[in-house]
Amino acid sequence: MRIYLKQYIFRIVSALVITLCFLILSLNFYVNYRIRDYKRIFSEQLSKYFESQVVIEKVKYSFPNVIKIKKISAFKKDSLTKNLTIPLVKLNFSWADYLLKKKIILTSINLYKINLFDARCILTADIADFLKQLGFFVPEKNLKLRLKDVRYCLNQGKSKIDLLGDFYTKIESNGNIISKGKVSLDDSSRYKKYPDDFLLFSSKYELKAFISKKGIDITSLEIKNNNYFTNLWGMVDYNNLKLNGFFTNNRFLKYPTLVKQKPSLISKIKRFLFSKGEFPVKYLNPSVVKPNIYDFSIDLSFDKQKINFDEIRFSLNKIVFFIKGYISLEDVIKLDLLSSAFISKTIPNSAHKTSKKIDFHLLGQIDDGFYCGNFDIDISDISSSKIVNYKIKSILDKFNLKSGSGLVAEFNLGKGDFAIFIDDTVYKFIINDLVGWFYLGEKDKKLIELRANVYDGKLKATGVVDLGKFPMDMHFKINISDLSSDSLKGISGYFLKIKGIINSQIDCYFRNFTEEIRGNFYMRNGLLDNLSFFVWLAGFFNMPSVAVLNFNEIYGEFVFTDKQVGFNQLKLDSKDLDFNGNFMLGDKSMVSSILSLDFSKNLMQSSPKFRSLLRILGDKATSISFDFQLSGLINRMNFKWLESDFKNELKSLLPGFIERSIEKRVEDIMQDFSSN
Amino acid sequence: MICCKKIKVFCSFLILFFCINSSIFSFDNKAPDKEIYTQALSYVRQGDKDFAFMYFDMLVRVYPNSPFSQSALFVLGEYYFENKSYREARDYFSRFLAYYPDSPAALFVYCYLLDIAKRGQNQDLIEDMEESILTYKQFTLLFSDYSECKYKSLLNNEYKALYYIDRVDIYINENLFETVYF
To answer: Do A2 and A108 belong together in one domain?
Structure first.
């Protein structure tokens, strides 16, 4: 009996299992038959959406309620290069809804191991249409959308920087959207650790939004990591994105600076008697060294394959920025972006402020990673007494930026045609074959190296950018060698009159919105060809040979700062004439200068004016040295002939009234000379 | 009777004499600014600066276009400065510069204003005045060490500026008042 019962149950179970298997197989067969066209439909729809070929290997139903789409590949337009691959997509649907309503209602969509090689394939897709579809797509049931293990290769240079992402979104039937996720750097493959700057790429986000008839209302979009916190809110409609918000640094919230205040007598007594209680401390304001963005406002509109920046405004550490323009995301990326920054700074010990407006304009195109086009910078410096305009207009040919080996960004420029406008004066120069490296390894201080050809000369530069400060400090050491002076005629017409080969070392400092340039130049075996000062000298002393002067060596040290411009040391060494001294132009165009001229006896004998002087002095004079000092306004210079043996000797020989007469004549000449 | 007539004639002459004199006096009244100026100077000579100040002040207020107002205005600034009323001194010196920028006293007005600016720590005014002093004159020193500017005020203060190539020394009554460097 028992054996019979056992056999009976076994048979029933077996029959049930077989029936179930049969049902499942039948169901599988039936559903797979019903969805046999889905592979083609999905491929067509996705190809239409991406505007390029999308291939799907298989669409398959799996019991009980899963449709699996395997191996989706989106290709570049007219190319076999892949933009996107998704090995597996799982679509879950509700049988109950299918049986009752006769339609497939999805309850969850899961995408696994997405590889995104070119983000443009998503950005250039018909976003307006996509959003339009999404706008009407308020699911009848709650829908969960999960994107797991998304990998995006940010750069395809020598060292790849891969971003990994996990995204989870829930769209409720009432239109509410909740989305969470994270983006992180994949540091498992090549480098153990990325520098801190890259931490911006490792963030978590949380989105709260709801779908309305107008589009998607974003109630809150928080993006944060240990260092940064961003909160945005706004609206996305069919072809427009409007967001407001802020971006702030978490560090100073975590580590506020404390300063111990001087304790009061009572607190001292309390501490002495009860040995407890801390002295009061004062919390300082948050540091503004790290970047913080407030009053962020963005207004974007999307055309097909084009993002229009209708208006972006934000305040970065009290500097107001404004950006507008467009980026066209076609095969050849075209862009026209205008950015303006407004900086206001109080002058120490003064009621006045200086204001700077800096405009950046980028107009060009990026083809195969190379940028060709214009890059212009326009600086208006408005202080209490003056408005100074600087402009840098550049035409860049084949500029590109790529990652080099290690944590190095490499940039190249085929040709750069630069014109610097300072008020009405233009300085032009051309740089060829520029190669630069930006070393990202150090925490705050970054190293930049440059090599380039400047006409027939070479340029080498090394720079340090300190990103740990705001505004960031920069220091560049530039070395120019073997450069023909006449090739610099675009910078100044003087270079046509000073002929020779130039070697120069220049230090450029940019600190706290002020610039400082110091350096030296050195020329050997050249020619001074009708340089105005020497032409004047030749005429005044009747020495025509000085107008065109062969020199052995010219050396100068120059300084350009907010406070002063000029030469600290000038040295001219020639056969018959030596020239030494300095000439500085200070604040409010005030001159400070000491110069020395040495005339050889041969040169003096060629001058009728000096011949009579030599007769007075006798044969013992082998050369005459004139040391003089200049001061006052550049166009009203004061002149003093400094003490020397020659001057004392001459003074002892000349009667007082002749001295005064000569002094008057020189005064007239100085007035003429300096006013011209 | 004859005596009475003589007395009458004498009286008539006396009246005529007074009339003529009074007419001369009234002619003097037609240039009252000079009269006030003279009166002020007489108080200066007596060493009574307060009364001199009152007359100079009257001159500047009542006859601002008088040729004597220039030196009088300088005196008012001087007087207030000596009495440490720097705000009033600054006002009068500023008026002086506005009306008489080409006066030989203008250089020394800059010096006074520089001193006042330093007391008030007004950096912008300090820089402006230093620039005005330094650029006041262009000079050439071939055989001498300095170029000189002089002015003597109505209060008998002697002003002197020595322009060296690298600085300007300003003296009041041979006492060094200010030094400004190029």
So the answer is: no
